[in-house]
Amino acid sequence: xxxxxxxxIELLQSIPDDKVVYIVDILxxxxxxxxxxxxxxxxxxxxxAMGIFSKYANTDLIPMEKDAWGxxxxxxxxxx
Length: 80
Description:
Blueprint: H1 3-14, H2 17-35, H3 65-79
């Protein structure tokens, strides 16, 4: 066993039993990350969040997007 694993086990043994469940959840998540090869990006995933929902957009409303947020804020301000 490596030195780092020994240190990890010592730390785990010092944690109260009622808190170990959280550590187990974290370790499961880390194991899931290790199971995926993160070196090559998945070509099916979108590389940018910009435009991620563009296929659902109503093309008639796209020209109004620029002012939509400002109008919504102004309307909320008037109503309050």
